[in-house]
Structures are given as structure tokens and as C-alpha cells.
Give the backbone structure.
Amino acid sequence: MRRSHGSERSDAGAAGRRPGNLPLELDAFVGRSAELARLAEALDTARLVTVTGPGGVGKSRLAAHAAARLRPRDGVWLVELAALRDPDLVGYAVVEALGLTDHTGRPPREILLEHLAERRLLLVLDGFEHLVDACAPLVGELLRRSAGLRVLAAGRRPLSVDGERVLPLAPLGGREAAELFEERAAAGTPGLTLHDGDRADVEEICRRLDGVPLAVELAAGRLRTLSPAQLLARLDDRFRLLTGGGRDALPRHQALRTAIGWSHELCTPQERLLWARLSVFAGQFDLEAVEYVCGGGGLHPDNILDVLGELLAQSVVTREETPAGVRYRMLDTIGAYGADWLDALGDGDRLRRRHRDWYMGLATWGELDWFSPRQHEVAARVEAELPNLRRALEHCLEEPDGGHLGQYLAGTLWFYWVGCGRLSEGRHWLERSVDLETAHERSRLKALWVLGYVAVLQGDTVPAFAALHECRERAERSGNAAALAYAEHRTGCLALVTDDMPRAEMLLRSALARYHRIGELNSNVLMGQVELAMARAFQGDLPAAVRLCEEVRRVCERHGERWALTYAQYVLAYAAWTEGDLAGARRLLTGCLDISHDFHDLLGTVLVVELLALVTVAEGDAEEAAVLQGSASRMWPAVGLPLFGSAHYNAPHELCEATARERLGDERYEECVRVGARLGRQAAVGRALGHTRRRAPGAPLVPRCVPAPPDARQPAASPTHKGGEATG
């Protein structure tokens, strides 16, 4: 059966306020009552259940429907792997699906084990068969070490992990197949009525298609132009053509391929051509990308919308509403059929290059528009395009002469790796790219300084220094002033978080002067100014720090920049606290927290929560300050070394803790910290933002200290909601 896609939570999750990312079903689920019962029983008795079967038999839909009926305490989480090619990214895909943000250099497996340790949830793993060698050991270890985890997998083969219970899924029986056909036909053609005389034709169509749900749905989509009798006649011809007669003995996979081939045969030449070309996309895609990548060579871009509309009407392509706008998707089996045709046409390499070029252009646009009022739009767009960007990166790095393009693309996406909480994946691509020697020095230099930046933010100082040192040396030799400025800037960042303030100030001032000489102004430059302000503040010159950050704030307001603004306001809030302006400090910090959380900037979020705790204790609420410190302590492991292991960054934390302990006593302080440490990030941020009323002295800490359920990241077709980091 056709998969339903969407950005909303599942019914079960929404009704019970459960976390999760399971999409709502967009069309009726038909039949399968016996299979659902067996699957429910299996999930009651086994911690790993795998639904297997050929393509198009309905594995994904059955698994999603069964999962939506369950209500584990910590939710149901769907991991879609069909569009993923690189086995090394499987762990990142699971981390992403669970809505986790981790800026450290820890491997995804470690992050997952920590997250799952005390949770009870269901992980739905879909489309894993081409990555089984990477998935099986990961699933096995997660199940062995996470007692509350259950996994429901859907694929063409088992995972072959100890304890796995396998449920092979057969095609639909005659009655259910006919019911599915009629339901989809009515949904696709409003006003359609099938008469009693059509029943025999419908049943025969379903029999010829061997009850394979995807094949049945494709056939039902044809009733907008054909009657059941006409459809049956054409289907009969197609079967004879492809199989030489033996209709009754068709293997199920051949029935599906035949049904897809028959649907392909009924398409016009332009529809077939677009179908083949669409196979180069991974996951979702939008109309602009289709027009650029697929246009030309017999398919005029002006005609693509109409041709795409016909493929939509025939269920070859599906339409989805996302936070990034209207997008389209081909089911994997249909896309694979198109890919075969594309290669048969000898046009695969050209289309894959056009796909790569489009997404390199998208990354370039994103980098330019990141420094603008469209930051959030950029984040959402790039998040939605991540599967296609991955495919473009793979193409660059696997092509004999594409290494420099991979370096360019990985480096240009710095704003996404850093600004949208993707440090670990960014480092994966950056390290792969710089391992390649190319003759294009500029692309390599950019990849090096971005790699150094990412490693600094992960607290991985030795690789950070190595990448930045290499970048600086090569930039000096080649006379690349921009790369030299960025290398010097990020080396200053490294000095800042390792408490070498005089060196940090020297390097940051030099880098800012270089930026000025070459006319560079963007979010990186503004962050350099904020980091210089921090270096001055840590050396006791708070007025200079305020002047620097006020200037950053003015530039941000002129350009609509929000990400760097949060770090400038963080410094200004610290200054307001030192001057006793607690209301002003809180106002600035809540503004920072709104933006950081919206971008999923975990570093910015936890820094703000730490400072809010200090403001809160100064306002007289030591209990709430301790709760906030506890919530920050839960976030830090996903960022790196708490407060960078820096004495300067740690000083406000220590002052807050000492004050709260003095007022509460050690036992009460620790109790409040434990309450905060049980809060998920969503709950902790909501609590910090809502802390506007004062409790009467001695009033009970409950109910505000009752921990909320672990938070869930909103599905991001929004590129983001997740966000930036900086060493600020």
C-alpha cells in the first residue's frame, strides 16, 4: 500500500501528548486485520520484529499503521533509510529521526545509547535492506543495552539479529485487494461510481496484479481515464507482452514490475521521460529543482508542471505539504524503475551532474542568504533538502575529478553544519573531502577552516588546531586573504575556549582587521566581534565588550540577522546582570532563548539557560535557579565539555551554585538540581521562558518541578528549526 507522508504527529502521539515523529495517515488503511493482529502479538512478545516482503507489498504502511496504535511512554519514532546510500550515515539518520542535537565528536552510537538508556520507545526502521550490514549491528547493540527499546523494522529481508521475530507479508487477498482498488479509485476520481457490472472486472484486475497493493493502487489511478473493462483489456495485453502468457504463475515481484511497466507503457513519451529523470532525486524535491534538473532534451521546462501533474494524477508521484512548501516524492520502487530506464537511455551521468549542480547552487544561495532576514527560510529549505544534498556530496566525492566540488559543497554548508545543529554530520563530509588531494586550492582551504571551526565547537582541540594550522600555512603560500582571515579567526576561537585570553584577543583583532580590508561582512565576521567582546569581558573590560556587542546588534538589525544577534545579546545580558539590571538581563536572555531554540542551537540554548539561572538566583528564587542549573547539566553532554572546561565561562555557574547552596542548603539544592535534570530540552526551555512569576518564600516547588515528558523536535521539513552554534 502507498505510504502516507506528512509533517504532523501521529494520532496516538497527538492525543496523548506523546513525543514522536510518526506522520498521520493521509488516506484510509484498508484490510490487513489478521496481519495487524499478528504484528501486535509479535510486538508484545519480541523486542525486534521485522516485516518482510517484496517491494510494493505494503510493509511500510502496515508497520506505520501498527505503530500508530501503540503508546510507549517516550513515543514512536520513524527512521526512513531508503534515500540513504552511505552506510556511515545510518547512525546519524537515527539520531536525526529521534530529534537529538549533539555538537560533540562522539559517535552516533554513543549518543543513541545515552539517550535510550532510560527511555521506553518504539523505533520504526523503514527501507533498510540496502544498508543491512550497517543497520544490523547498530540495532543489535541498541537492543542489548537499552532495555526500554523496541524496534519494528520493514524491509525486503530480515536484519538477522538475535531475538528477531520475522513476519513475512503476503499480498492482499481478493476481497481486500478489490476493496483497496475501489477506495483508491473513489479517492482519486471524485464522483466515480463503480456499478455491479464492474465488480468482476475489478476482481480480475486485482487477481492479475496478484494482490500487490502498490500495483493495485497504480491501476486504480487509471480510472480517471479508463473504465474497469478498458483497464482490464490493456492490462491483459501488457501481461502477455512481458510474460509470454503464463499469467497464473506470475511471481509476485514480476507482478509488481509488470504493473509498474504497464503504468509506464500508458504514459506519454514526455511523462516517461520525466519519470526516468525524477529518479535522480533522493526523498522530497520541489518544482524549481525538477524544472532545472529534468528540463531540456525533449522536455521543455515550461511543460514540466503539466507533465508532473499527470504523474501525480497517476500516483507515480505524490504531493506533500511541508513547512518548506509544496514538495513531491516518488516511492522507492517506482523511482528504481525510472532509474533503470534512465540508465538504459544513456542519460544517467548527465542527469546526476545536473542534480549535483542544482544542489551546489542551493548551498551557495543558502550561504549568501544566511546573512539576511531569510535565515529561517534558508534553514528550513536546507533541512528539507538534506537527502538530496547528501546525494550531491556523494556524487562529488565519488567522481574521479569531483573532489574539489565536494570540498566546496561541504565547506559552503558551514552555516548548516554550525547554525542548524549538524556538527557531527558536517565533520563526516568535511573530513572525507579534505582527504582528497585536488588542484583547486581555494575549495580545499574553505573545507579546512570549516573543519577546524566544527572541531572547535565539538571541543576536539587537537584536530581543530591541525586543520586551522594547515589552512593558515597554505593560505599564506597561495596568497588567499579570505582563507587566512578565517583560519586566524577560528584559531582565536580555539584560544578563547581554552582560556588563553591575550592570544584570543590578538588573533580575533587581527582577523577582524583582515575581514575589514577585504570587505567581508557576514555572520562569521559578526561572531568574531562577539568573541572579541567575550575576550575583553573575561579580561575585565566590560564597557568595551558592551560597545562591541551594541555594534553587532545594530548591524544584525540592519541586515535581519538573528543567529549572531543571540550571542551579542547574551553578552549584553551578562553586562546588564553585573549592573543590577535584572529585568533587562532577563528580557535579553528570553529573546536569545527564543531564537536559539527555534534554530535548535543547543550551544546557544544551554549558555542562555546557565545565565538565566544566575539572573534567577539574583532575583531571589534560589530553588528555580537550581532547577535551571539541573536542566543545563542534562544538555551539556550533547554539546561537549560543560562550559568548555573554561574557568572564565564557568565563573557565573559557580557563583550561581554557591549562592543557591548558601540559601537552600546542600540537600535542598541537590534535590532541585535533580528535578531540573529530569526535564527534557523542550520542557526546560518552556520553563525558562515562562519563569515570570515569583513564588512566595517557602512555597512548595511542586507542581512546577514535576518533570515533563522528554521533548521531541518538531518535524523539520523546516530546515530548521535547529540551529546554530558558535563558541560564543
About this structure: Strands lie at 48-52, 76-80, 121-126, 149-155, 164-168, 318-322, 325-329. The longest helix spans residues 348-370. The two ends are 49 Å apart (CA to CA). The chain is about 60% helix and 5% strand.
